[in-house]
Amino acid sequence: ICRPFSLPEEYESAVERTVIVLRKLFPGVKIIFATIMPTTNPDTAGIRAYNEIVKKVAAKYDIPVDDLFATMHDKMVTYDRGDHLHLNDEGNTIAATQVAEAISCYL
Asked: Distance between CA 2 and CA 25 in Å, rounded?
């Protein structure tokens, strides 16, 4: 149960394949990545490692990254819904506002 859904090397391959498939199916589409948000667990090393993979693939394919991790990292305790993973309504508003700002220039 402690194992992530994908090991880092599997995750990198999956993210890269996603880019390739999206670009093949939807030529000219604008892709924007977002980082994985933190939990209330103070050990964020695993999430940070996966976010670095996202950033690496994004850089390779010139894809912008909306860094939700950076935005919410110091706020998770405040905006936790109570399950140590999901945001409450106010936290969702903060994250949604950032996402809207990140994509607005592409609409």
From this structure: 35
Amino acid, single-letter form, for residue 43: D
pLDDT of 2 reads: 56
Task: Check residue 1 and report its DSSP letter.
Answer: -
Q: What is the DSSP letter of 35?
A: P
Contact 29, 23 (CB under 8 A): yes
Q: Which of 37, 20, 34, 94 is nearest to 64 (CA)?
A: 34
Instruction: Give the integer Cα–Cα distance in Å for 87 and 95.
Output: 9
Residues 42, 7: Cα–Cα separation, whole Å: 21
In this predicted model, what pLDDT tens digit does every residue of 86-95 receive, in sequence order?
A: 999 999 999 9
Q: Which residue in this structure is represented by tokens 């935005």?
A: 71
Six token digits for residue 70? 């950076």
With tokens 């305790």, the residue in question is 77
Which band of pLDDT confidence, cut at 50, 70 and 90, is reported for residue 1? very low
